[in-house]
Amino acid sequence: MYKAAADGFAGTPNMMIEIGGTYDLEVVKQTDFGVFLDAGDLGEILLPKKHTPEGLSPGDIVEVFLYSDSEDRPIATTQVPKAEVGEFAYLEVKENTPVGAFLDWGLDKDVLVPFAEQHRPMVLGKSYIVFLYLDNQDRITATSKIDKYVSNDPDHGFYAQQAVELIIANSTEMGYKAIIDQSHWGLLYNDDVDERISFGQTIQGYVKHVRADGKIDLSLKSGQQIRDNYSQVIEDYLRDHGGFAPVHDKSPSEKISGLFGMSKKQFKKAIGGLYKQKIIAIEDDGIRLV
Q1: Which of 40, 86, 175, 222 is the 20 to 30 Å CA partner of 279?
Q2: pTM of the predicted protein model
Q3: Mean pLDDT of the region 10-22
Q4: Dist. CA 66–CA 43, nearest whole Å
Q5: Residue range 225-289, CATH number
Q6: Superfamily of domain 163-221 in the CATH hierarchy
Q7: CA pair distance 3, 165, nearest whole angstrom
């Protein structure tokens, strides 16, 4: 994707440009083997001809990802990687070599996971959750030792009902550990999962609750979706039982749970919504469809 200079597109002025990120850069020189881009402090970087959009010329702006070639020189591509430096991704092993495993991350050149950065020996054809970082020679490298890169900082700023992106990273007796928005751990309880999910899957979820210690409970449904589901359960029960259920907001929790499989708090919120919509009436001995 690129924009001609004549349309006033400004690129990325005053932005620090680093290997491992995506930027809008200006074409400064055209050659037989590609174009050179102005990458600020990194100097002029080659965008090879095979990745150069047709019609690109000096003064145009093009969106590129920056990485290092086989000789550790900065190079640009219009290919889109599955992850950038500072991000997690679920990637497949394409080759095992004497220096480590190479994973497919969407570019012509695969990314290396050195043996020292493998949580366990990687198997050809299998996929692993990895984190991308720059090594001490500014080469993009991956590691499957991800724990040290996922934050447990309680001052994270996440809040209840917030929509987030989840990477399913592990399973426990209680449920699934997930990486939230490429940064923090969260827990998705088994009781909140009513669909098949798998290791490495990226899925949209919601912050269900932030505990006092900052730990994050997750859900695959928003609060409104959950309330709608509970309301539907109650309405379906009433239609299947002559329009009446012998419970109301003052009934014992055990009776409500036994009848509908939800807590008293969830039940009260659900029937409150149904009452406001004039779908049910709340009577002395129970609730009834209107």
Answers
A1: 222
A2: 0.73
A3: 75
A4: 12
A5: 1.10.10.10
A6: Nucleic acid-binding proteins (2.40.50.140)
A7: 30
10 Å CB burial of residue 201 (0-12, 13-18, 19+) is: middle
Non-local CB neighbours of 260 within 8 Å, separated by 6+ positions: 230, 233, 234, 237, 267
Contact 25, 62 (CB under 8 A): yes
Residue scoring higher pLDDT (224 or 17): 17
Q: Which CATH class, in words, describes the domain spanning 2-77?
A: mainly beta
pLDDT band at 4 (very low <50, low <70, confident <90, very high): low
Q: Which fold has domain 88-147?
A: OB fold (Dihydrolipoamide Acetyltransferase, E2P) (2.40.50)
Tokens representing residue 181 in the block: 């928005």
Distance separating alpha carbons of residues 207 and 184, to the nearest angstrom: 12
Q: What is the mean pLDDT of residues 33-61?
A: 93
Label the pairing between strands 184-189 and 216-219: parallel
Domain ranges of the chain: 2-77, 88-147, 163-221, 225-289
Q: Is 68 helix (H, G, I), strand (E, B) or coil?
A: strand
